[in-house]
Design goal:
It is a single chain. With about 280 residues, the protein is of the alpha/beta class. The protein folds into three domains: about 90 residues, Translation factors (Elongation Factor Tu (Ef-tu), domain 3, Beta Barrel); about 110 residues, Rossmann fold; about 45 residues, no CATH class. About 15% of the residues lie in helices and about 35% in strands. The strands form three sheets. The protein has a seven-stranded mixed beta sheet, with helices on both faces. It has a six-stranded antiparallel barrel with strand order 1-2-5-4-3-6. It has a two-stranded antiparallel ribbon with strand order 13-14. Strand 4 and strand 5 form a beta hairpin. The protein binds flavin-adenine dinucleotide and FE2/S2 (inorganic) cluster.
């Protein structure tokens, strides 16, 4: 886990981008600690609010020179609707960076980066870092509709190998990111796939990557209460290196996991063979 800071972050700008809001925050001390895959949490509602829990967001960009971080926010419920109205000069209660980021290669690799919706946000700086280390990247960016895509132009600045997929066909290919995945892995000889998006997408990406002997690193989005490893609301069943399945916390042990170790079908359940399941009354 990173060493997070809790700070009062000034909103420098909020820009609509398709279905999302790109929030640039001044957060002194935070940006130099950020690696691709880290996330941030923001308090919402102010001191008298009934919204007790912080909201989690992947960190899109971090600029140590400018002391800024950027988040990409989709409106979902009351908390994100409030953030979508943030104005320059507002102060937000921020904790960042949190979680375990994507592993970075020691040298040149060929990596395919697969993002669903705002899941593209942490993959763009990851792609830049892989290229900085001499590697090459391809992207598959998908969403339900064109307006919900994120990062297509930024990805095209990094590589010619960008596939866009929408479920309604309003941009790029019609279908899901998994449809062209096997072909894209083969086309760039990828040895690793990094993905961020909805859980069923991450499970399917991992299945296809494994069939082609690729590593699959997945950034999961599990509901989180504390975000710092205390409350255990964010646990997932994961197979350890010793072959034993355990619940692990996606806020501190993740959100990035080796997709081949996550028991995707058992998320939300307590598998009977999980370490400690008997003590939880599961047989
Ligand atoms: C590691 C991580 C990274 C994320 N990255 C992004 C991102 O880059 N951009 C983005 O728009 N959203 C992201 N999310 C989802 C975002 O946290 C939720 O959309 C947000 O918390 C919803 O809050 P709300 O008040 O608008 O919605 P409500 O539905 O009113 O929220 C009610 C409660 O449920 C929790 N909750 C609801 N949906 C989610 C969810 N999907 N994940 C976690 N908690 C949830 C909220 O935190 C809150 O406590 C991420 C979530 C996680 C865990
Ligand atoms: S959200 Fe509390 S332990 Fe992960």
């Amino acid at each position: 886990m990173a060493h997070p800071l809790k700070t009062s972050a000034e909103v420098l700008s909020r820009t609509p981008e398709g279905a999302y809001h790109r929030l640039v925050l001044r957060a002194p001390g935070v940006a130099p600690r950020v690696r691709p895959g880290h996330f941030a949490t923001l308090a919402v509602g102010g001191p008298g609010s009934s919204m007790l829990l912080r909201r989690a967001f992947a960190i899109h960009r971090a600029d140590p020179a400018a002391q800024t971080i950027e988040l990409v926010i989709a409106e979902r419920g009351e908390g994100t609707r409030e953030l979508a109205r943030a104005r320059a000069g507002d102060l937000l209660d921020l904790i960042a960076p949190l979680g375990t980021p994507f592993p970075l290669p020691d040298g040149p690799v060929s990596a395919l980066l697969v993002g669903g919706g705002y899941g593209g946000a942490p993959l763009l700086p990851l792609g830049e870092e892989i290229k900085r280390r001499g590697g090459q990247v391809g992207f598959i960016l998908g969403a339900a509709t064109a307006g919900r895509l994120f990062g297509v132009e930024q990805a095209r600045e990094l590589t010619e190998d960008v596939l866009v997929v929408t479920e309604d066909g309003s941009a790029g290919l019609t279908g899901r990111v998994t449809d062209p995945l096997a072909q894209a892995i083969l086309a760039i000889n990828a040895t690793v796939v990094h993905s961020c998006g909805p859980m069923p997408m991450l499970a399917a990406v991992t299945r296809i990557a494994r069939d082609l002997a690729c590593r699959s690193w997945t950034a999961v989005e599990e509901s989180m209460a504390c975000g710092v490893g205390i409350c255990m609301t964010c646990v997932l069943p994961v197979v350890g290196e010793d072959g034993v399945s355990r619940f692990v916390r996606s806020c501190t042990d993740g959100p990035v996991f080796d997709g081949a170790r996550v028991r995707w079908k058992d998320i939300g359940a307590i598998p009977a063979d999980l370490d400690g399941a008997a003590a939880m009354g599961v047989h």
